Amino acid sequence: MSWMVTGGAGYIGSHVVRAFRERGIDVVVVDDLSSGHRSFVPGDVRFVQSTILDGLALERAMEQYDVTGVVHLAGFKYAGVSVQRPLHTYQQNVNGTASLLAAMAERGVRNLVFSSSAAVYGTPDVDLVTEGTPKHPESPYGESKLIGEWLIADQGRAAGLRHTSLRYFNVVGSGSEELYDTSPHNLFPIVFETLLTGGTPRINGDDYATPDGTCVRDYIHVADLAAAHVAAAERIEAGEPIEPVYNLGSGDGSSVGEIMSAISRVTGIAFEPEIGPRRAGDPDRIVASGELAARDLGWANRHSLDEMVDSAWQARRAAAEAALAD
Fold it and tell me: In which residue ranges of the chain is pLDDT below 70?
């Protein structure tokens, strides 16, 4: 028996794969490598290169590897780009999820952990987001994740699917020097690339209603996130009660200014970030409560801000050194 991890060659997915293996659970990775990396998947892990839109390939893999559950991370994850590519976003995230659910139904696979997103909340008007906070997604990406949750809930009612969806904000850090965030749209990779090329990082606005004037966001360590996915999978497979949705949040958050200070402190690279204009639609503060996930999944943000920065920086430096060695 094994669990399938869709998107398991990506930054988050590859950490989930390692977390499963640490628990002694066999996994099979399905990834089309559109944004993932084959090198992120351990050589002894079974790997299927396929899009989740290919239902027959999913069915074959489920049958061949005796899959009993799925952690679904595959998808198009760039909220900003989704505004320019809505049809592509819906095809990958909505049609892809429907394709996966159909394959699971065909093969009798009834356990699912869905990697959703806090983007479903849009710009909440509360200081602390809970699972009951109204959902107002502001991009095709956020909308596609909410639709994915609806599809899964409907299938749960129709076919007895045991499931939960995990919503989270900004994922950072690294659990292994072999794995790092390669997204061109995320804060840590953007700042690291700027520093490695001799540039000066930039903050978009410093006049927000926060203690230091910069936006406050929820940052969680990728290894803690991965552990929560596995805990949810184990709870579902054991038939234990589980909520349909959990927020994975820190409860307090960090400002962009604090992130910049931590990066300078940890890397030893002194810099004063440039201050640019605000970006349209950036709220002052978005932070989520993780109380439900702490109760049921043992969720905790176990890494300090400096530890998050240090692990991410070490992994990025290791990648840079490996590229030079090649």
Answer: 281, 326
**pTM score above 0.85:** yes
CATH number corresponding to 187-217+251-325: 3.90.25.10
CATH code 3.40.50.720 region(s) in the chain = 2-171+220-248
The verdict on whether 141 is a catalytic residue reads: yes
Q: How buried is 268 (Cβ within 10 angstroms: 0-12 exposed, 13-18 middle, 19+ buried)?
A: exposed
Q: What is the DSSP string of 196-236?
A: HTT---EEE-S-SSSTTSS-EE-EEEHHHHHHHHHHHHHHH
User: In the chain, where does the domain assigned CATH 3.90.25.10 lie?
Assistant: 187-217+251-325
Neighbours of 237 (CB within 10 A): 17
Amino acid at 74: A
Cα–Cα dist 274/202, whole Å: 5
* Residues 99, 103, 108, 110, CA torsion sign: negative
Q: What is the pLDDT of residue 80?
A: 83
CATH homologous superfamily of domain 2-171+220-248?
NAD(P)-binding Rossmann-like Domain (3.40.50.720)
Q: Which position among 11, 121, 141, 246 bears the catalytic label?
A: 141
265 Cβ neighbours under 8 A, 6+ residues apart: 306
